[in-house]
Design brief:
The chain is an alpha/beta fold. It has a single domain, classed as P-loop containing nucleotide triphosphate hydrolases (Rossmann fold), CATH 3.40.50. The chain has a five-stranded parallel β-sheet, with helices on both faces. The longest helix is centred in the middle third of the chain and has 22 residues. The radius of gyration is 17 Å and the shape is globular. The two termini are 34 Å apart. The structure holds adenosine-5'-diphosphate and deoxycytidine diphosphate. Adenosine-5'-diphosphate binds next to helix 1, helix 8 and helix 10. Pfam families: Cytidylate_kin (PF02224). Belongs to the cytidylate kinase family. Type 1 subfamily. It is found in: Cytoplasm.
């Protein structure tokens, strides 16, 4: 009997996990561009599901209702690093899913284990489709190295100090990293990571996972550090 589609991974998979603001999305996207690989932002999937539940008036505290929404989730997600579109039932939600109302609610959705299992299956299918199309994929999130693609040949935990992560997110959201801007960002970074840590281990590297601390690296340095781990694995 042939393997079920999710039984093995197609293409060369680079799995990247880490806390908010560590640089997962931006660094992984650039690594995918350099390698000519696909790119999968799994956080965008949790965000889009949260957007859809809110849109439909689903009570995020009702795990059965959110799971039912996940079962019929009409998500479209691009894996081209230059066009990572996100649509829900044909509506472009790429900008809407970055709004604070989604950032503050997404952990409630991500903590529901049957929802995680539904998205895990979708994520493996997307990784395989992208891997078949381009030869490889860089997939990033919170549980890619441990749950979604634990057999990936490259598994990286991207970390950075809380101070560095707060400053980056603050600059991104408020254009500044002064004390007020950092305080306004804290709940979206620190509190969310605490909530997300209940269901995924992304603060300590699992066995076989390489930690890259980007606290003192600039963006290009972080990209280079990831590429070096990939090159070592392919050598
Ligand atoms: N090594 C780095 N040094 C400085 N800024 C960075 C670095 N990596 C990412 N950034 C910036 O920090 C912000 C958050 O990065 P992002 O990739 O969204 O993090 P994550 O996906 O882990 O939450 C972005 O504005 C990004 O350009
Ligand atoms: N593989 C993943 C990816 C994201 N999540 C959850 C946890 C996060 O709070 C949200 C949003 O993830 P996202 O990567 O967009 O968040 P940050 O950019 O790191 O702030 O989704 C998850 O539980 N598992």
């Amino acid at each position: 009997m042939p393997d079920a589609p999710e039984d093995h991974l197609s293409g060369f998979v680079v799995a990247v996990d880490g806390p908010s603001g560590s640089g997962k999305s931006s660094v992984s996207k650039q690594v995918a561009r350099v390698l000519g690989y696909g790119f999968l932002d799994t956080g965008a999937m949790y965000r889009a599901l949260t957007w859809w539940c809110l849109e439909q008036g689903v009570d995020l505290g009702d795990a059965d209702a959110v799971t039912a929404a996940a079962e019929r989730f009409p998500l479209g997600i691009g894996t081209d690093p230059d066009a990572p579109d996100v649509t829900v039932d044909g509506t472009d939600v790429a900008t809407a899913i970055r709004e604070p109302r989604i950032s503050t609610n997404v952990s409630a959705v991500a903590k529901i284990l049957p929802v995680r299992e539904i998205l895990r299956v979708m994520q493996r299918r997307l990784i395989n489709e992208a891997g078949e199309a381009t030869g490889g994929v860089v997939a990033e999130g919170r549980d890619i190295t441990t749950v979604v693609a634990p057999e990936a040949p490259v598994r990286i935990l991207l970390t950075a100090s809380e101070e560095a992560r707060l400053a980056r997110r603050s600059r991104e959201l408020h254009g500044a990293a002064d004390a007020n801007a950092v305080e306004a960002t804290r709940s979206q970074v620190v509190d969310r990571d605490k909530a997300d840590s209940a269901v995924s281990e992304f603060t300590v590297a699992a066995d076989g996972v390489t930690t890259i601390d980007t606290s003192h690296l600039d963006f290009d340095g972080s990209v280079e550090a990831v590429l070096q781990v990939v090159e070592a694995a392919r050598a």
